[in-house]
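Standup, Tuesday
Yesterday: got the pipeline producing structure tokens again.
Today: sanity-check two examples.
Blockers: none.

Example 1:
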Amino acid sequence: MTVLDGAGSPTGSVGTTPPVPHRGMPRPPKPPRRIPASMREPRPLGPREAAARTALMLVAVLLLGFIANLMVLGQLQHQIAQQNLENTFIAQLAEGTAPVSEGTVDDVLLSDGAPVALIEIPEIGLREVIVEGTDAATTKAGPGHQRDTVLPGQKGVSIIQGRQAAYGGPFSRLQELVPGQRFTVVTGQGEHTYEVIGLRYAGDAAPPPPRAGESRLILATARGAAYMPTGVARIDARLVSEAQPSGTRQTTAVSLPPQDRPLATDTSTVWALVFAAQLLLIIEGAAVWSFVRVGARKTWVVFAPLTLLAGIYVADQAANLLPNLL
């Protein structure tokens, strides 16, 4: 049906589309264009959101630093330490100043980490400088000599503790040794040859104690999957070369610190961990301030490396709380 206006002209039909505007008539406005979410300006973070973001960043940095420290940087740290230790020990052997007791040639108590011997077991690809002391921080550098025992090659029983997986994992293949295999240990008293007696775990019978004038060596490491120790594995070996006289020792089985025993942790360095954590918190606080005042891009450029380094420092201190044979 056609509808007429007052002048009798048709205005349109009921139920049909409106007429197309003539040229010169104003066009209807276009609908607003939606901006993709990826192009919108980010909403400023509230105090709670900023705090939550900072906490998540701290957790992520700590986990990343901890894993990197144990599995990557720790291996590099161990290699560098071993190279420096070997250079020092070879120089001491040449000068005749390598230690033969718990003290130096000047009768000064050996510090933790001082080189005392060089062990070589070709069957398992082992060549490591043995250091004095067996706490978690010391065994990062290499296998440690337990202070309350004689040095290898001397009359009596000597105990060497080494890591199974972390920081080079020098004793990772220790349990592959079989009775009858021989290996050498070099100390300030010469080269000593040992023969493997056997492998034992907790609860297994130990070999009879050495007789007077004999020398025995025990190599200890963690038992179980890598980074998940379930006990201690021990290799017993007897000296087949000439035994040397034992040097004077100040540390006894009673005075040996608890953190120096197999699979022990060291809580005496918690203060260093607290200091490292405070440093990380200060860096993260400065990063949050920079994010708000300067912007995300510049903040990441400056604070990402600082946060990573601080996280690795915290992880390195936290590793001292882990078992010393890990």
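Example 2:
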Amino acid sequence: MIYIAKPYIGEDEKQAVLRVLESGMLAQGKQTAELEARFAALCGVKHAIATSSGTAALHVALLAHGIGPGDEVITSSFTFIASVNSILFVGATPVFADIDSQTFNLDPAQVASVITPRTKAIMPVHLFGQACDMGALQALAEKHNLLIIEDACQAVGARYNGQVVGSFGTGCFSLYATKNVTTGEGGMITTDDDDIDEKCRMIRQHGMKRRYYHEMIGYNYRISDIHAAIGVAQMDRIADFIAKRQYNATYMNEHITSVITPTIAAGCDHVWHQYTIRLDGDRDRDQAVQQLNEAGVGTGIFYPVPAHQQPYLQEMLSTVQLPVTERMAKEVISLPVHPLVSQDDLELIVEQVNTL
């Protein structure tokens, strides 16, 4: 089976973890600080704050910006549920805008249509490794005096017009096991704002600026140096990881002819967390998935039920119809694109997909 995702863990990561274990300093420390510095440099920002997960990063970022009850945050329904849950965690209301069928990302025109006096922020989700239309979204944010909290959990290293995601507002990343850069479990917040940096660090550690002096309500959202050491080793190879994903995606785009292949938007450097095809019309996705799996090609469906159709959100929020989102949820299939996919694997994937 060619797995849909497979962490690329080598000798460097193993030795890095072993050094931390042998040091006896396992909690958040020097390796965490090193990972934060490397991440800030990657994104071209002043600060990066490591957290225990991407979900924690989103939660902390929203809290640091003072978003809470009575506020609305516009985001995508076509995303992992953590994007939406983080808004609910702070007592704010998620407001869904529809997406563009070519990129799977927020459609700025649809975002504009749902802005109200209660809107406090836009949370663009850079889905599958491609940046949203940040030019249009920044223009909306400036016009309406809105914050931008980027959900860049799937887009480490992606660029929009040469600018790295996570630098357009406050960026939030996931370092989960399947992500392009992993710490096993972990997350990261990026910002140029000194005040937001300080608040995020306090919220991450029980509201402390100094040990045992608690200035605000906080959480235990720290990452360990064991996890951070893996991430530091991964950062040494991020350029190679991205290049291999881009090669794999380009090969499949050039050779797959039976389905709708992914689109790279103008000005975007896609980093291909997922390579997502579409079965248009009335074609049977379940049958296609079964056929590919039986042929040894792993698949994933991200996401079969959009957030606005999840039962608990339907009970909580007003009814919304998102026709593009709902159609994409029925058509998408993701294929293996990770760096461990070999040339032989690529040829098998293309061969099997072209029989659909």
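Quick observation on example 2: The chain has a mean pLDDT of 97. The chain is about 40% helix and 15% strand.
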